[in-house]
Amino acid sequence: MSTPHPASPEARDRLVLGVVGGSGLYEIEGLEEVEQVALETPFGRPSDVYTVGLLPRAGGLPPVRAVFLPRHGRGHVLLPSEINFRANVHGFKQLGVTHLLSVSAVGSLREDIAPGDVVIPDQFIDRTAGRAQTFFGGGLVAHVQMGDPVDAGLARRVAGAAEAEGARVHVGGTCIVMEGPAFSTRAESNLYRSWGAHVIGMTALPEAKLAREAEIAYALVALATDYDCWHQSEVEVSVEAVIAVLRANVALSRRLIARVAAGLPVSTAELPYPRALQHALITDPARIPAETRRRLDLIAGHLLRAPE
Q1: How far apart are CA 259 and CA 34, in angstroms?
Q2: Is pLDDT at 237 greater than 60 in this prediction?
Q3: Example GO biological process term (predicted)?
Q4: Annotation marks residue 226 as catalytic
Q5: What distance in Å separates the CA atoms of residue 129 and residue 182, rounded to the nearest whole number?
Q6: Which residue of the set 112, 117, 228, 284 is catalytic?
Q7: Distances from the Cα of 301 to the Cαs of 7, 76, 238, 278, 305, in angstroms?
Q8: Whole-angstrom Cα Rg for the chain
Q9: Which residues are annotated as part of the binding site for substrate?
């Protein structure tokens, strides 16, 4: 029997949890059999080394393999614009991740979303500029569906875990993703409110788009740290104020991750990841350059027949 392609459903039948940590979350707790893994990818170097280990599951089930990466690097050395999102997501795929939980600090655009609240957005509006948005190109064209960018099954589990940890949770909503690193002007903040957005951050895109191309289920835990600058009764956003709330949120996020892991099924059949590339590849396989095939093998190789 031939070995299945590493991106094929046959090779991804066991659920593997990835966690990408945002501002303040540079490690997760409770990992056993820990190892540090440094990777290179066809898209460059990820933000840092990956921490790989096992997190306990409830109910006597075997532990879940978990992979953690600090998005900004340990010590927070990367601006949002400097993050190599393609390398980060490709590295998660190399390590077998099927479901990716993204933890991110955000500003609130709604009165009822207070600093310290948890939001589980289900939509994004992209206001970034100049970031590499796709793995594809160079002779292979793909268009994935992004109408529902967040995996509903994973998001439900995350929301339930946050509620069980005593957090004030807002399920659903739209996250504006801006370029940064400066915070919004007041005019911009009010514009985003007029669009019906709920929170604003700097890192969920293109992360969510690349996860979809990599056929990894994605959910965002958005931790509100401030009211952005629209809320004129509040003091203007400062790094000090953000960090103060951020530190309070870090302990919550670590507990949340452990609770999510404890409730995950063993098989991806019970919590499927998106098969987003099944009908997304457009290019005639005979026209795909050999180098492009090599670069994109882990992403799309399971769907590409050998060149004739």
Answers
A1: 19
A2: no
A3: purine ribonucleoside salvage
A4: yes
A5: 14
A6: 228
A7: 7, 34, 46, 12, 8
A8: 19
A9: 202, 226-228
Q: What is the pLDDT of residues 155-211, one digit of tens each?
A: 999 999 999 999 999 999 999 999 999 999 999 999 999 999 999 999 999 999 999
The catalytically annotated residue of 117, 122, 151, 226 is 226
13 catalytically annotated = no
List binding-site positions for phosphate.
23, 71-72, 104-105, 203
pLDDT digits 0-9 by tens, 266-299: 999 999 999 999 999 999 999 999 999 999 999 9
pTM of the entire predicted model: 0.94
User: Whole-angstrom Cα distance, residue 244 to residue 21?
Assistant: 17
Q: Output the CA–CA distances (angstroms, integers) from residue 239 to 71, 181, 236, 247, 301, in the order listed.
A: 18, 11, 10, 12, 44
Closest CA to 203 of 111, 95, 104: 104
DSSP run (H or E) holding 276:
none
- Peptide bond just before 206 cis, omega within 30 deg: yes
Binding-site positions: 23, 71-72, 104-105, 202-203, 226-228
**Fold type of domain 14-301:** Rossmann fold (3.40.50)
Distinct helix (H) and strand (E) counts, the chain = 7, 11
Instruction: Write the DSSP symbol of residue 273.
Output: P
**Residue 71 reports pLDDT greater than 70:** yes
3-class state of residue 32 by DSSP: strand
